[in-house]
Specification:
Blueprint lengths: L3 E8 L5 E2 L15 E8 L1 H9 L17 E2 L4 H7 L3 E2 L3 E6 L5 H11 L6 E5 L4 H11 L6 E4 L4 H11 L3 E5 L16 H18 L2 E7 L11 H5 L2 E6 L6 E9 L7 E7 L2 E4 L3 H5 L10 E8 L2 E13 L6 E4 L3 H15 L6 E7 L11 H13 L7 E3 L2 E2 L5 E2 L4 H10 L4 E5 L13 E5 L2 H9 L1 H4 L2
Parallel strand pairs: 6-10, 6-11, 7-8, 7-9, 9-10, 15-19, 17-18, 19-22, 22-23
Antiparallel strand pairs: 1-2, 1-3, 4-5, 11-12, 12-13, 13-14, 15-16, 16-18, 20-21
Helix pairs in contact: 9-10, 9-12, 10-12
């Protein structure tokens, strides 16, 4: 009897399944994202799977032993992972082509403990290409094995034969399984291959690192459910034409998702940046209008970032463009600055940029952004020794942020002499002796205090 097949439609963005095709996904609202997926409906197979189901256990009978970690040898990588990689975990490393995903994992092979067996599966490059890149990066590891293969069954057979502790697969979009008729990189192939790799990691205790490319929208190619299946999702951020790279955890079942790792790409590969604030502020112009330093918290450490603004008269419609700061928040700050601060930027083109490719999502950078815009409009520098911390409300008030003492210590450590803070927390903080605090209640006071009262109403 012929097998009965069932056809469903799966959204390539969020993984939503529906029996009928739709031009717009009912779940995430994405257009033209519904892909056809054929499933084999085998009653016998379902019966076998029911017989092999494990028995439920009481909570009191579960093993409470903590997860076992091992250091990768790359300090910034270990920081993002939460202190090291976990044995038996499935980790997804995503990023734009050429950003440094393969370089990071190949360097990890050189810094890992020599007794750990590693299988590097290159599904995009040949063995010769990988060898040449490893020589350029200085990768030498006697326990590093290389396999150039795209068939998942062959990869699993090599894992069964070699029994590596660590498996690196580059990349998931180019691997295919013979059990699926879909093309490599399709919704069904990516999902099925990832599911079998997850089963391998959990049953064998093998730590798996999978490389995933991102689409032009910035999401990992393939269904969104791919991110739900893995234990850790890491994103490489940064522009290809700059040397800075930022590794950020979008999901981590074994650690925090707030930590970031900062790297610098050079001829010898990726170099860990132990003091990112100092590096990000290097080359900063002295006493230049339209620039201000903000202090944000990334994970457990404070990070200083330079916010630049350029305000010019608008020839046509006003253009508000931001890079590193959310566009809607930038537009809100411009409106508050005009309404409450007396800076008429509504008829101007305003461009905002965060140096180094950082993405500032914390409201603590609001005050620094507003002061940078006001400085550019008035064409008057704030001074290279000034930093600003605070959230700006719609009424123009300056609100406090968390970990203020830690931020002030980092600002003072890097040699800044002045810092603008919210006035209502002035008596609650411990300020280093070398740092002068400028307490302000609203955005108007902030502009007047650092740019001159007579200039605020220009």
């Amino acid at each position: 009897m012929a097998n009965k097949k069932k056809t469903v439609y799966v959204c390539a963005e969020c993984g939503h399944e529906t029996a009928n095709w739709a031009g717009k996904c009912p779940s995430c609202g994405r257009w033209n994202s519904m892909k056809e997926l054929t499933l084999d409906d085998k009653p016998g197979a379902r019966a076998d799977s029911r017989r092999s189901l494990p028995k439920a256990k009481k909570m009191s009978q579960l093993d409470t032993e903590a997860e076992v970690r091992f250091a990768t040898g790359i300090s910034e990588f270990d920081r993002v992972l939460g202190g090291g990689a976990v044995l038996g975990s499935l980790n997804l490393v995503g990023g734009a082509p050429g950003i440094g995903k393969s370089t990071l994992l190949l360097q990890m092979c050189a810094t890992l403990e020599s007794e750990r067996t590693i299988l590097y599966v290159t599904a995009e490059e040949s063995e010769r290409q990988l060898k040449l890149r490893a020589q350029r990066l200085g990768v030498e590891n006697e326990e590093l094995y290389v396999l150039a293969e795209t068939a998942l069954e062959s990869i699993l057979a090599a894992v069964e034969d070699l029994k590596p502790e660590i498996l690196i697969l580059d990349s998931i979009q180019t691997v295919s399984s013979a059990e699926s008729d879909s093309a490599p990189g399709s919704v069904s192939q990516v999902r099925d291959c990832t599911m079998r790799l997850m089963r391998l990691a959990k049953e064998k205790g093998t730590t798996v690192f999978v490389v995933g490319h991102i689409t032009k929208e910035g999401s990992i190619a393939g269904p969104k459910v791919l991110e739900h299946m893995v234990d850790c999702v890491l994103y490489f951020e940064g522009e290809r034409n700059t040397s800075f790279r930022i590794l950020r955890a979008a999901k981590n079942r074994f650690g925090s998702t707030n930590e970031i790792g900062v790297f610098e790409m050079n001829e010898e590969g990726l170099r860990c940046v132990d003091n990112p604030s100092e590096l990000l502020l290097s080359g900063r112009p002295a006493n230049s209008p339209g620039t201000c330093v903000a202090c944000v918290i990334e994970g457990t450490r404070p990070l200083l970032a330079e916010v630049q603004a350029l305000v010019t008269p608008a020839a046509y419609n006003a253009a508000r463009r931001s890079n590193g700061i959310d566009y809607n928040r930038a537009a809100m700050l411009l409106a508050v600055l005009e309404k409450r601060g007396g800076i008429p930027v509504g008829s101007c083109d305003a461009y905002i940029n965060v140096v180094g490719g950082l993405s500032l999502e914390e409201p603590a950078a609001d005050l620094a952004t507003a002061l940078a815009v006001a400085s550019s409009y008035l064409d008057r520098p704030l001074g290279s020794d000034l930093a600003a911390i605070g959230e700006v409300g719609l009424a123009g008030e300056i609100r406090s942020v968390s970990n203020l003492n830690q931020r002030l210590s980092e600002i003072a450590r890097l040699g800044f002499q002045r810092c603008v803070i919210p006035a209502h927390v002035r008596n609650e903080i411990r300020c280093p002796d070398s740092l002068k605090l400028i307490s302000v209640k609203n955005i108007g006071e902030a502009v007047a205090a650092v740019l001159g009262k007579q200039m605020a109403g220009k």
